[in-house]
Amino acid sequence: MARTTHPGACPLDCPDTCVWQLTVEHGRAVALRGDRDHPFTRGALCGKVNRYLDAVNGPDRLTTPYVRTGPKGVGRVAYRPASWAEAIDRVAAGLRASIERDGPESILPYYFAGTMGHVQGWTMGPRLFAHLGASRLDTTICTGAARAALNSIYGASVGFEPESIVDAKLIVLWGANPLATNLHLWPFIQRARERGACLVTVDPLRTESAARSDEHVAPLPGTDAALALGLMRHVLDAGAADEQWLAAHTVGWPELAARLGQWPVARAAAECGLPVEVVRRLGERIATTRPTAIRVGLGLQRHHGAGQAIRAICALPLVTGDFRHPGGGALVSTSGHHPIDEGPVVRPPDMPAPRARSVNMSRLAAVLTGEADPPVTSLVVFNANPAATAPDQNRLLTGLRRADLCTVVLEQRWTDTCDYADVVLPATMQPEHLDLLTSYGHHYTTLNLPAIEAPGEALPNTEIFRRIAAALGLDHPRLRDSDEDLARQLLRGAPVSFEELRERTYARTTGVAVGTAPYAAGGFPTPDGRARLHDPALARLGVDPLPGYTPPVEAADPELARRFPLVLVAPAGKFLMNSTFASLPWHARRTGPPRVHLHPDDAAARGLTDGDAVRVRNDRGAFLAGVAVDDATRPGLAFTYKAYWARLSPGRATVNAVTAVRDTDLGGAPTFHDCRVEVEPVPAELLIPEPPADAAAAPQPAGPAREVAPAPAG
Predict the structure, then answer these.
(1) Is residue 423 within 8 Å of 417, Cβ to Cβ?
(2) d(CA 341, CA 643)
(3) Which residues of the chain have pLDDT under 70?
(4) Which of 270, 502, 551, 655 is 20 to 30 Å apart from 378, CA to CA?
């Protein structure tokens, strides 16, 4: 068979959505590289995805359905292979039992960004469950707070055109670390710097991006809104507020200006734990530099006051009038620019979809342990690994162990969540199925076509849900739509057709041109075209209608600080993509075993040195890690990287054993970084991970002193 090359797109939860070229030989994917012609990603793949074929071709791929024969939570030894017919019959029986006992709302589909593809992630599965009348999932776990804040202030998840950042004279990376999480923006930032731009990073941690910036401002975690208010006050005091722009393009400026009277720079600096001169210097840069581009990361919204923080930061370029200029303004996400609307595809006009309750995915631990009425008695998980990624891990696992809970997991390899499933169904990976992708970091839409056959009996998510629908006796024709049908439906409002994408692979679909200021003339996507500095709709929700400061809950609690003196945050690492790659040997080696980073002062106070074994604990739980002593953090602030799997970690727990189920002030998002802990020494041998019961069935990551080679799939 000839060696062939196939275009496609990376499906992972990243703003870059790279277009790639996949080389296939004898039906096997043998090489992967970026598409050099793509205007944004320009041929580079990140450190995570460079080894994506390790996942595609890995010996641990799931290739047949499994059904549970033993207790939940002990691993793959409690399962046996099954035929598709038997597995689907079990799924249908479990769903029917829930409906008969507690009604259709007792079924909860749980899914997120294991793939960002619209077809495999956000169409047929949600369509089936909407038609059943199952509980609807409120997908809050990543951008819930930011989405609510952006809808409030700008009318949608919109911002400056990212390629135009080359025109900025000041770039502020606020809670953003593009070298780890938005790599393809960095060359555009570098081009701006070559043209004289100044780069400032605002982040409690000295990330790789912060270390390469002209200035690093490190506020206390969760105080971003206070800093933004202080910077706006400096702009106002300096006479740099763009009154003409504010009058023409916003509502609520007089009210916000009055509030800024309460936020002198000295107050903001004290709240943020910063020297006054640091805040004043950044305020002066912003007051005097046009255009300023503020690239806002997602990590800063993991605190109780996240919604107000995003609103306050996004208000800053409205006050300065930066949206007048190409490359100026703020950007959190480009999602609102794309014309694809999943709503009519999930709930087509010709297909019944009963009204149903909404369940917040970030509260899954509480939902499965008594919060839901009627109770959730069937859980269908796809494109997600909640046992590793959801907060309050111990309570969540208690819920997943419930004898009356029927759990179905669609997966590519055996994850933490599979350990608690009743049925595990093998799913395809990106080179094996059709999908359609937009981006939350650029303005291009991409079509991914299958290039290789799936291993064994693995099937696309869409086909699995078609089979479940048929087994339930549901005969609506919309439940038989093909993947191509679904892609065409998604593209109905787009300026590009399925045929054009099949020919070209990708196209710019947002109508926002590079080098333009999209809101200079046309206005924001609000009913009157004005950005809302004052939003009366928030007052009806019991939220301050003006941008303000909501302190973090645990980080700002002095009583809790006496018991748990360290604030813990868990940023994204460079070689793990959420929990997707945590079981792959190469990624695990590059990431290393779990570590908690402590400032030298905090380590010394506890008699700890680099490499010591510790337990990180609070009232919710604990996890084990090695100590890394460095000054990338400040005293009183610890950090560890997210995305490890509990089944492959020492003590069988991850950082989410200590995180809380608590909602943000807007959007119902989780508060992963609003967490206090203490760190205490433990014997070094506890850091050697105990092999899972199915160790012969899956490759193990490297531990602190050894490396386990992958074994054949069982």
Answers:
(1) no
(2) 30
(3) 1, 693-714
(4) 655
